[in-house]
Amino acid sequence: MERHTSEVIIRILATGALVAIALLLLVPGASLYYESSGGVTCTRCHEMTPFYDTWHLSSHREVKCQECHGGAMTMDPSFHWNNVNRLYQHVKGDLPENTRLRNVDVQNMMARCAACHRQEFAQWQSGPHSSTYARIFLDRKHNSGTQLMDDCLRCHGMHFEGGIGDLVTPLDRKGPWKVLPAELADRPVMPCLTCHQMHRLGSPMTKADLQARVPGRSQETNRPSLALFDRRTQQYVAVEFLPLPTMLDQDRTVKMSPDRRQALCYQCHAPDSSMRVGTGDDRTAIGVHEGISCLACHSKHGQKTRASCADCHPKMSNCGLDVEMMDTTFLATGSKHNIHFVKCLDCHPKGVPRKGQHNTESPREQEQAESILR
Fold it and tell me: Residue ranges per domain, the chain?
């Protein structure tokens, strides 16, 4: 009797083990099956068809699905479990209206972006747009003066599922504050997919050789992927469809650069409802820099401005001074002359010298002029 019972138990355990092994092999096996088709098999799930169609016509069409989204050899168990869950939902017919990447998927995607775009990723990582949830939402100075609200997530954490109350506690001006999903504290609030849509109609980038030169005016200023992820609609808006604002300096309309990339900058670095320069988080250039694009001075991913003066100015300005040594926020952040808004009269209250006038000044007069400008 005992022997028979032991055999039954062994058979049950063996059967359970075989079922477990089969289930473990099912997920990578299914992944290999789908990967072998180069993405075509993905379209057998009708909800994936639109994503395949846009990818197939995008500038990333030569990059296989698994290289960005993970595949059979992905070591993260949650990735495979999420695929099983989606398959279960598909069989049940219990599908969301729109299939979207989760915040965790967006965060994990950055490592795959970095695999190809190493220089761009390194620049972004060293710049202000890689700020973490802890850096943004646990800032005592900001939180003490301004109440955290859902609208903060419009720019900082637009892929986060939930409201500000699900992200930070307490929601007051006293603190101390903490990020509720602890795993997000050191993750960036503006990952690559904040400003880039991967499945976007466009051609792969090619190197122009001597036989395929493109005239300067016809060269592209941005890649097709450049787009804003709108948290409210959960949709991307391509940069060509984003409006450039009409900015005002008092009651005067400011001359704006036609650079369309700026439209993306203005989605976060925006003025208040008055549309006046310098309100809200606006940095629209006026004065000596009016009409210059944001990207003329700020590098695309790192936002570095070190070489911005040298890009346009000769070593010396018309008044004989090195522009990089003038009293502006380019020289020192504490300067009262913001580089975005500085005007000639800010440093020349008695009138702007005529071009070449400095050549007739004595060394003493030049020294006095330099001390004033500094």
Answer: 2-99, 100-201+222-241, 244-303, 313-374
